[in-house]
Design goal:
74% helix, elongated, acetyltransferase activity, Maltose/galactoside acetyltransferase domain-containing protein, transferase, Mac_dom
Length: 58
Amino acid sequence: MKSAKEKMLAGEQYRSADKELLEMRNNARRITRLYKMLGLADIRLLTQELLMEILQLL
């Protein structure tokens, strides 16, 4: 049986309240809040962190 994440990525119907997807959304919100608070000098570091997390999802 496919996970909700696998279904989502395949374009199939999925349960959006799935624990893994909720954790992913919360993490994305956390990173976005941090990004908005940073000055230009720190944006590069956070962007690298975000890209690393995206690569882990693939």
